[in-house]
Amino acid sequence: MFERRFENGQPIPLLPGTEDPTGNIVLGDESRIELAPGYYCVTYSVSAILEEAGYMQVTPSYNGTSNLLYGVYFKTGAALSSACGSNSIIIQVPAQTSFTLTYNSNVMSRSGAATVSVLKLERER
């Protein structure tokens, strides 16, 4: 998604690219990915143009908890600078959960783009 303004303290809006025919990975609404129990590899990247010098922080949430450890942070030194970040994580989902990315910044942004890839892993028990 391009040219989207991300709002401070709000989940990043998402659009489906390829839908999962198994129903294990479903876009719940425009900002939540619903995951069935299992193990998943989640890769995401986020970018935005910050209108003033400032920072961008993106925090993933799942299993009812924000996970700052797997977030991204980018600080700019000038207005109209690009901020970006990406991360990959493997998560265990013991019960149905929502996965979201929350955007935080101390300045307005524009031209936001986000890509999220979720793959269910087959693991021996």
Textual characterization of the structure:
It is a single chain. This protein has strands spanning 10-11, 25-27, 33-35, 38-50, 55-62, 65-66, 72-75, 81-93, 97-105, 109-121. The strands form 2 sheets. Strands 1, 2, 3, 5, 6, 7 and 9 form a 7-stranded antiparallel β-sheet that branches. The protein has a 3-stranded antiparallel β-sheet with strand order 8-4-10, with no helix packed on it. The protein is an all-beta fold and 125 residues long. A hairpin with a 2-residue loop joins strand 5 (55-62) and strand 6 (65-66).
Using brief descriptors, characterize the structure shown.
elongated; single chain; 10 strands; mainly beta; 56% strand; 7-stranded antiparallel beta sheet; 125 residues; 3-stranded antiparallel beta sheet; 0% helix
Helix and strand arrangement:
Elements (H helix, E strand, L loop, with lengths): L9 E2 L13 E3 L5 E3 L2 E13 L4 E8 L2 E2 L5 E4 L5 E13 L3 E9 L3 E13 L4
Antiparallel strand pairs: 1-9, 2-3, 3-9, 4-8, 4-10, 5-6, 5-7, 5-9
